[in-house]
Amino acid sequence: MNKRFWLLAFFIFVGFLTGVNSTQAGFGIQPPYVKPEKAVFAGTHYEQVITLLRSSADTDMQAVIKVTAPEIDTWITIDKGNTFDLPKDELRVPMIVKVDVPNNAPIGSYKGSINIRIEPKAKD
């Protein structure tokens, strides 16, 4: 019984040593919102720089942007498009969020979200 225990423990230990290597990397955005400093009216153009931050840039990645703002999604564009590269060795990649309020937009408070997914550029 004792011999089986040590044999099992040995194989578990070896399994941990030879297991799949994992990489942990952080991702963030700064600032974490698009918010005008003053009121935006019909016919207004507003731009804000959002910086995508990575803790590790050892591979080429791409950002996939999804705007979820049912009332105003046509007002919002990203200068680089909805999919763009995060090149290797670049920890900070800026993107410009542009908001073009139509001339006939009713006065109101509008909300939505911009989701940013980071994925490998090469589908390995």
Arrangement of strands in the largest sheet: 1-2-6-4
Q: Which regions contain 5 or more consecutive residues with pLDDT less than 50? A: 17-22
Mean pLDDT across the residues is 82
Relative helix content: 10-25%
Structural class: mainly beta
- Proportion of beta-strand residues: 35-45%
CA radius of gyration: 23 Å
Distance between the termini: 44 Å
Total strand segments: 7
Shape: elongated
| Major sheet characteristics | 4 strands, antiparallel
Order of helical and strand elements: HEEEEEEE
The number of helical segments is 1
Quick summary:
The chain is 13% helix and 37% strand.
Give the secondary structure arrangement, pairings included.
Layout lengths: L1 H16 L9 E4 L14 E10 L6 E8 L7 E3 L4 E4 L5 E9 L12 E8 L4
Antiparallel strand pairs: 1-2, 2-6, 3-5, 3-7, 4-6
